[in-house]
Amino acid sequence: YEACEKLEKNGVKFQKKPDEGRMKGLAFALDPDGYWVEIVRREKLGWKEYYNLSQTMLRVKDGPASVEFYTKHLGMTLLRKMDFPQWKFSLYFLASLTPGELEECLPLDPENKHVDGLNPELPNTLTKIAWNQCLELTWNHGTEKDPDFKVHDGNAQPQGFGHIGFIVDNLQESCDKMEAEGVLFKKRPQDGNMRGIAFAYDPNGYWVELVDRKATFSGICSNY
Q1: 63 in any annotated domain
Q2: Which end of the chain is more exposed for a tag (fewer CB within 10 A), N or C?
Q3: Is 55 one of the annotated binding-site residues?
Q4: 60 lies in the same domain as 147
């Protein structure tokens, strides 16, 4: 509430304030381009920053297929799955976490003791405990069966959202493995003027940038 009041005093407009609508305790501010910025109260674990980037939400055509893509090909961990059958949609929260980072987070969760390890279908607050940013996937049930349904990838006109990005240890090796497993690419490492990066397509057509961990900005742009 304090954060929203502070933003509103500074001229920020809101799509939803904390007490509005069915979902209480969260808000949506509007950035200068009209993008929705969700604001959620974190667990009190001693963060020094007043705000920190928590998640990016993508709407997807097929929830399970999208989760499989990000966990199988990009090594993400599914932290939380939330089904809302009465409203016919599901939410998935994924993060890039090492096993050690996950083990550190589990005991800090006030909502679930995780005695048998992580079960993403049980209530938890890991998305607010882990420092790592999350990818939130929103799936409206039934769209996977509609041949005419597709999400706007942000790169077709009118352009808006561009892509999400991952850093990998070995770009060429990662791309070769993903391509062998059927992943399609917008740009392979050797294509175009920019070296040390690639763009894969996720199942929804979103661009997923892959950057070699050893690449430098000057090296990536050396052909310009």
Answers
A1: yes
A2: C
A3: yes
A4: yes
Of residues 169, 158, 35, 143, the one with CA closest to residue 89: 143
DSSP element (H, E) containing 212: strand 207-212
192 belongs to a structural domain:
yes
181 labelled as ligand-binding? no
- Output the pLDDT for position 219: 66
Instruction: Confirm or deny that 121 is annotated as ligand binding.
Output: no
| Domain coverage including residue 139 | 52-151
In a domain, 47, yes or no: no
Contact 79, 120 (CB under 8 A): yes
Active-site residue, selected from the candidate residues 43, 144, 179, 209: 209
Number of domains in the chain: 3
Q: Are residues 139 and 176 in the same domain?
A: no
Reference 127, options 102, 100, 164; nearest CA is 102
Q: What is the pLDDT of residues 86-121, one digit of tens each?
A: 999 999 999 999 999 999 999 999 999 898 999 999
181 is catalytic: no
pLDDT of residue 92: 98
